Amino acid sequence: MSDIPIADHALLSDRHSAALVTRDGSIDWLCFPRFDSESVFASILDDDAGHWSIRPTAPSTSTRSYVEGSMVLQTTFHTDEGTLELLDALELGDSTDPHSLGENAPHALLRGVHCTAGRVTIEMICRPRPEYGLVVPILAEIESGVIATGGSGRLTLSLPDAATIIDGEVRMQLTLDAGQHQYFALQRTPLGEPLPGARTQDEIAAGLATTTASWQEWSEIHQSYDGPWRELVHHSGRVLQALSYQPTGAIVAAATTSLPEEIGGERNWDYRYAWVRDASFTMKALWVAACPDEAHEFFAFMTAAAAHSQPDRHLQIMFGVGGEHDLSERLLPQLSGWRGSAPVRVGNGAWDQPQLDVYGELLDAAFRLREQLGDIEPATRTFLVALADAAAAQWEQPDNGIWEVRGEPRHFLYSKLMCWVALDRAIALADQLHATDRVAEWSATAARIRAAILEEGWNEEAGAFTQSFDSADLDASSLMIPIVGFLPASDPRVLATADAIIERLTDDRGLVFRYQTHTGVDGLDGNEGTFLLCTFWLARVLASGGRVDEARDVFERAVSHISDVGLLAEEIDSETGEQLGNFPQAFSHVGLVNAAWAIDQAERGHPADGDH
Description:
Blueprint: E1 9-13, E2 18-22, E3 26-31, E4 39-41, E5 51-56, E6 61-66, E7 73-78, E8 82-90, E9 108-127, E10 138-142, E11 145-149, E12 153-158, E13 164-166, E14 169-177, E15 181-190, H1 201-222, H2 230-242, E16 244-245, E17 250-251, E18 274-275, H3 278-289, H4 292-306, E19 318-319, E20 330-331, E21 345-346, H5 357-368, H6 370-373, H7 378-394, H8 413-428, H9 439-457, E22 458-459, E23 464-465, H10 480-483, H11 492-504, E24 530-531, H12 532-544, H13 548-559, E25 571-572, E26 579-580, H14 586-603
């Protein structure tokens, strides 16, 4: 089983799929041709599930960073005899239009080594194991490479020299002197399509250069944030771009499946899908750290994927990156899991849960894009009006809530809050939706929801807004009350809720839990780490409530756990400070961007939230 820390991986992306690279030069995760496709390498989940390593044969230390303005990774190995630079990228299509970055992605992983000093001998081991380790492909030599056949596609491995094939893996050793370069590539071809020959050294070098330039061009044109933590915000914007599926505009919640929320626990989920919930959070982050075009693409994907004409059906909460609805969950018993954290899952059983908050999140996303949307097309207007009507009709029902609990449905405060948001935003958009005749009814229902939240959501015993109408338990999602504009951040009840969370829902590191798992609300055994998004929410609320110094402290505590290449998982282990959960997590980077912006706005005297 893999024991490498989650944070010791770096992300590669071609905006179709993703790979993870360890600090010692091993590709331990790669899915082709989409984020949610079966893996080619998955040793992050099981040692026998495939990897591709390039590293010095001699003992070495390494440092790494992304090439400035890009998602191209440079790892530098230092040995007693010399220094080696390893450059890694998933190849982007050759495009001069940043809006179509990755449009023609060839589904190729490119790797280049450069000896910058002395002499270094490297060893390359490529051990493909398609379909989550089930397939041991047939390997056959071709000119300047190897073909791997087995599973739903074939792989062409391009090499600079002859290699040895043994025990289902390709091995090679090379010695480089100062100034010498060598290049490698792995390209996937679907069955039934012509198989390409191996790439030349010059072709691979050109692919790396073009990919670097494409990322840098996008960053230069689209990233203009100039507030505090500028580099972290810009890098998070690139991470969100890297987690977006170029053909549709979908943004996956994370690049991986089943990295656990507790070591050895069962809280292991597949996050390689696009959540409706992410829409409004992500829209704001894209406006700050990327550009409105990406926000518009994500919204267009969500409305197209979610559209349906069944009035008695809940809005689905997540979709495949191509808009697929059925994401049925299954187990992969052949994989032992990261540090033995089984089961390993693909698909996500929460896909058909009733979660009422998604109405508000999608309508809030539309509201954020109101100027760009302009004259909304009739089908989209009809769909958005139907969402508001559904929120009005269903808000009194119990549901599974924002955290997708697998216990009994409850009357979660956050779900009621977002039903109020759905109506509030629909009222504000009524002219664009051609729905002014609905405003009176929507307003009356919104008033009833508001009264219920203020009366039943506030708990005197807890001295805070709580998790659900029938509980005194705290939940970090109540921090969204001022963020969505339900109450100002300066309201005494909001500040009291923030203080209660600081006192009773944070760990010794000052990071915030989503909720207390021991209450059994989620129907699962075990515990989990603190949740980075919730910690960033706390920073936002404190900043908007005038407690800017405290907000900065909370923000700094959260980002102190960021990896050496600027990546965040979902959670932090309270005991060890280690990153936990799927990686990298879009929600965490969205939270970072939005919290940095809120603090910047507060310091400028412009409250960031509740100003819709």
